[in-house]
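User: quick one
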Amino acid sequence: MRATVIHGPNDVRVEEVPDAAVRTPTDAVVRVVLACICGSDLWAYRGVAQRQPGQRIGHEFLGVVEAVGAEVGSVRVGDLVVAPFVWSDGTCDFCREGLHTSCPDGGFWGSVGSDGGQGEAVRVPYADGTLVRLPAEAAGDERLLTALLALSDVLATGHHAALAARVRPGATVAVVGDGAVGLCGVLAAKRLGAERIIALGRHTARTDIARSFGATDVVAERGEAAIAAVRELTRGHGAHAVLEAVGTEDSMRTAISIARDGGAVGYVGVPHGGSAGVDIGQMFNRNVALAGGVAPARAYIPELLADVLAGTIDPSPVFDRSVTLDGVPDGYRAMDERTALKVRITF
Amino acid sequence: MRATVIHGPNDVRVEEVPDAAVRTPTDAVVRVVLACICGSDLWAYRGVAQRQPGQRIGHEFLGVVEAVGAEVGSVRVGDLVVAPFVWSDGTCDFCREGLHTSCPDGGFWGSVGSDGGQGEAVRVPYADGTLVRLPAEAAGDERLLTALLALSDVLATGHHAALAARVRPGATVAVVGDGAVGLCGVLAAKRLGAERIIALGRHTARTDIARSFGATDVVAERGEAAIAAVRELTRGHGAHAVLEAVGTEDSMRTAISIARDGGAVGYVGVPHGGSAGVDIGQMFNRNVALAGGVAPARAYIPELLADVLAGTIDPSPVFDRSVTLDGVPDGYRAMDERTALKVRITF
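Assistant: Done. Structure below.
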């Protein structure tokens, strides 16, 4: 089969690799129908996050079950399914508590020895604990299928940020980051009843999506000017809930600074600035909480799926470009150069 | 009147100062009956926290109302009252939400121009928003009065840490720090229904108090050994809730490392290690939250007071030495040298 392989910084290639196959009785093989490139893949692409040359890449996909091991009971060959961005056994303490990302049997697509999502097929460990069935009818609806692909990561991650930031009905929310996760954070905050949503971003195409997702205000400034702008919009107080969806030192500093006293920052941007942006003195004096982390997407998919199917939320606009598998290297370049927001891969 | 004045590192003196007096219609003057020295006063005493030479010091006291301004309605001359460690107006958005420490009219006892708690009397701004009445009968009960003094700061602060760490019935809790706040954190965690409470500390006199307050386990190790010991006590998982009551880089690092995935660190130790102990990468991967800060003691006093009066909690054992006002410099030395846990000042 063919799949995307990362050989080094700025070097992803689509190559022939061994076919995905059931290896243990709890495995399934999923023939990928739709996948995509994540902002977090760019950390590897840029060489900031280390990868071994030859590792697979991609962690967001949906597709059709092609084979199952003898112990798989929840999905059958032919089922349309979506995978969260980590696999998990579904039975341990953490999975039962909804923190599937801490499953001791869990793992990340594309880690050494595993298939990545940006390929023709994926061996899925712990299929019962990992995959979520989608209605077969969705297969024929490209817009819906695209929206469902967002369950894999960005919508679930935006939702995690909103929960971690304690978004409540009536809350004033600020979202730092106008990437796909930040935009999904706007959607999630709106879904949780936020009254006012301030989106920080300066790419009009993106902030237009933010507005369509429920943002009531857009702040195009950065750094100190952004902090001042958010404070001015909030009677000097800041936002009850701040979603941090970037992961740099600056974005964390901004997020903490625009939180209202007693508020919370829900951070889901993979931290690449160390702890330098975490101003503990400011947090202490103002009782600003910091929560979040890697999103347990598997826990959230059922509830978000219901809303996507009902049409009450539609994250599909975050995908603004499509490539075929051969076009994946172009897709990375486009996202790296910020000419594309989020690239969908069709098969 | 006489009060404690800080002139520089290791230099606190008891001196004649201007009498406390009502200056605005919302002021009261409280004649101090009982005060104490706080672990956080030592940061100033050691020169780590800056003070202007001549500033007053001390932020925990209870006493009898001696005078009130024309607009004071909630307390009367002769009332026995306790003060939280910051004053607050009681009417702003933050006070009404229970975050009195963010009151824009609030302030800290001993800040420039204000009286400190370690003196014969204190001018209390916003008396209605600040003071809490105590039953007159308590005046004759030294043990009870001592317990009530803890409402001013350490008991409220331990409670804040427990709330921030999300202590729930049945939870496994770890407490970093065996000072008065850490010990009160044990008491607060027990009160909130913690099933297992691991106290980290190596001064037997203190960990004995921790056990009497509800600690089920004591870990005397530090650093990596402490982390390993807590993990061993918790099937490798760590504690659901960790109370950080020290404020150094090491203590924060330990606190985050012993939290269970998905758990929370409630920190109330005044941060003196910057953000260096905040391992954001570890927090991210394991979804460990960090919350807390300066405790809004005023918000908690009524509920904690009820339990102290009912006898269901008794923080008085954290006070292990008494001095008169003249003995305050000796009290600082004793706490600085760790020969005293918490020094009470009688008048």
